C-alpha cells in the first residue's frame, strides 16, 4: 500500500493536490485529525487485502496543537508493505498573500488579523514537517496543469522526484526586469535583428532570427560561458534546498536576441535526472497572447 501525507502551507494548493490524487485513484481524506491517523491506518490493515492500495490524507495547521504529535504518530504507524511519504506544498509569502486576497478568505492562523502574520506563524509550526518531507513542491509559479503533471510523475509513474524546477525566462528590459528572477543576463551586447527589416517582424522562434543571432561567434562564446556557470550553480542550489530557480535572459524588447539565447540555453541543458526544466518567453508578444511554457 502507498500511504501519502499531503501537507504544507495554507494556500499552496493542498486541496487541489488531493483532488488530483483522487482522480489518480487514491483514497483521499482531507483534514483527518492527527489523533485518528493511527486508527485509520489500523482500519486499512483490517480491511480486505488489495481493496485499497493507494491512500492520501491531508494534514495541516487546522489540527491545532495536536499537530505537534504527528511525528510520534508517524513513528508508530505499522502496516505491512507500507511506507509513509510526505508531500509538502509550499509557495513564497507574496504569492500566498495574493491568493488569500483574491479569494477573500482569512488565514487559519491570522485570527482576523493580517494574513502575513498568519503565514509567519504557520511556517514556524510546519518547520518540522518540511524538514522531513520526501517531496517539496513550490507552487508559486506552477500552473495547475504543471502541478498535475508533477504529481502524476511522482505518484503514478513512480518517476524520480526533481526537487528543483529551473525556468529559463526571456524578457525585454523596456518592460522591466522580472521580479522573480534569481539570475539576470543582459544580451543587448549582441547585434540586434530589429534593425534588419526582413527580420523585424519575426522572433527568436523563427530560424532566420536564430541563424542571424547565432551567426556571431560572440553568441556561441557567451552561451558556452553561461552553460558552464549554470551547470556549476544548479547542484549547489539543489544542495542548499532551493526549489525554484528563474534564469532571466533579457534584450531590449524581449523578442529576438533574448528568445534566441534562452532557447539555446534550454537546448543545451536538455533532459536530465537532477532538475525539472521549463522555458517561457514573457515579452515575445505584447498583444495579450500568452506564450506557452515547455517542460521536461
Please give the CATH architecture of the largest domain.
3-Layer(aba) Sandwich
Span between N and C termini?
A: 29 Å
**CATH fold field value of the largest domain:** Rossmann fold
Q: Give the topology string: H per helix, E per strand.
A: EHEHEHEHHHEHEEHHEHEE
- Can you tell me the CATH superfamily of the largest domain? P-loop containing nucleotide triphosphate hydrolases
Q: Could you tell me the number of beta strands?
A: 10
Question: Largest sheet at a glance?
Answer: 5 strands, parallel
Mean pLDDT: 85
Q: What's the CATH class label of the largest domain?
A: Alpha Beta
Give the low-confidence spans.
287-296
Shape: elongated
Report the C-alpha radius of gyration, rounded.
23 Å
Description:
The chain has 296 residues and is of the alpha/beta class. It has two domains: 2-155, P-loop containing nucleotide triphosphate hydrolases (Rossmann fold), CATH 3.40.50.300; 164-295, no CATH class. It has helices at 14-23, 34-46, 70-76, 93-103, 115-125, 127-132, 144-155, 207-213, 217-240, 257-269; strands at 2-8, 27-29, 54-58, 83-90, 135-138, 164-172, 183-186, 244-251, 275-281, 294-295. A five-stranded parallel β-sheet has the order 2-3-1-4-5. Helix 2 (34-46) runs parallel beside helix 3 and helix 9 packs across helix 10 (257-269). The radius of gyration is 23 Å and the shape is elongated.
